[in-house]
Amino acid sequence: MDNFLEISGQVFAKNGLITAFTLVGLIICLSYYLSNRFTKGRLHGSAIAISIGLLLAYLGGVKTGGQKGLADIPLFAGIGLMGGSMLINLAIVSTAFGAGLDEFRKSGLAGILSLSLGVPISFVVGALIAFSFGYSDPVDITTIGAGAVTYIVGPVTGIALGANSEIITLSIAAGLVKAILVMLSTPLIAPYIGLNNPQTAIIFGGMMGTNSGVAAGLGAVDPKLVPYGAMPATFYTGLGCLVAPSVFFLIVKWLML
Question: Is the pLDDT of residue 106 over 70?
């Protein structure tokens, strides 16, 4: 039995990417079962799956003391490749093929305004929270505020401004909290804000911005809406990476004089 487990472990480790897809598939099956069995679909399976993924990443990091979560365990090293930038970018690009350009045109000025307002509002909320917790360095406030935009904008801004690793970690945590809140709350608020058509999905994605949270939340409402929310959310991240370490930092620096 011991030899069987040892040989199996070696096989799984040598075929890391296949192991990663298998593990993710099992988690998704379990998540959708839990969703249907215990929440009657009110809490979407994708939301549960992401929560389980975050928990496993935490447990993997605690066990190994590493920085890549579950991917630091040799048996699950393929998760690092599966969750890497190559496949993430492929998934983002492929999402766009499910959207119709006519729907984007119909959103018109509202879609543009949602994107223009979403980034500053998220940044201001994050910056105010950072200030309320006693941070006074413009670099720290800007980095944490950028994290509230998305957990990608946070570290990009922190590295650009020379923030220390602790502040960058806080910015990532702020973005993750936002993504989870958006993911879990979207199905609950959708009936009250008319989130049931491509136009409102575009506006919602532009306001919220967190790609993973918006995609998971809209998936719980209607999978057909996911491309419409994900596309402006992707532009949201790009816009945040441009303005947070430049325009927003200069404004924060001026205010803190």
Answer: no
